[in-house]
Amino acid sequence: MSTTSTPNDLTSRLRHRMETDRQQIEETAAREFERLGENLSAVASGALRSIEADTEEATGRMRDLLLKAWLRPLLVGLSLFLGISGGSWATMHWLWRSIELRIETLATLNRQIEEARWTVDEIEDTTWGVTLREIDGERFVVLPAGSLEYPPWTVRGRPAVKLSRE
Predict the structure, then answer these.
(1) What stretches of 48-114 adopt beta strand conformation (E)?
(2) How high is the pLDDT of residue 125?
(3) Sequence ranges of the domains in the chain
(4) Quick one: pLDDT at residue 109?
(5) Distance CA 156, CA 142 (A)
(6) What count of other Cβ atoms lies within 10 Å of the Cβ of residue 160?
(7) This prediction's pTM
(8) Of 56, 106, 144, 152, which has the highest C-beta tally within 10 A?
(9) Which residues of 119-147 are buried (b: 16+ CB within 10 A; e: fewer)?
(10) Per-residue pLDDT tens for 78-128?
């Protein structure tokens, strides 16, 4: 073996050395890239969990806000509906009762009018058609038609007898 080196030997050793260094660099770079990928994956997972938690929290707040936002108008609307319905029912009940009372009053008045007519008819039958009238301060007993042949006074075409003022 010769102890002298040739340029080809030097080149071949350099190539071998460069190849070994390149493999080491590639292996080191691959390990670093893998670690970097794992770290990035962990960071991305953490960020994703954080975003999901923040989104869930914001959704919960929005849900509460929407619940309060439609609950208040719902309660106001329901209160108005119940107030209007209750007021309408009470008004209709009051009107119905008022109408019933007026119908009862009308029936009572009609019955009283019929009784009064019956009483007037009875009085006319028992008094033979004689009535009392006051005209201009003068008092007359008005007799049935045809009861006096030549009456001194007449009231509405019927014979009458004038009463004295004493």
Answers:
(1) none
(2) 80
(3) 7-127, 129-166
(4) 97
(5) 9
(6) 22
(7) 0.41
(8) 144
(9) eeeeeeeeeeeebeeeeeeeebebbeeee
(10) 999 999 999 999 999 999 999 999 999 999 999 999 999 999 888 878 877
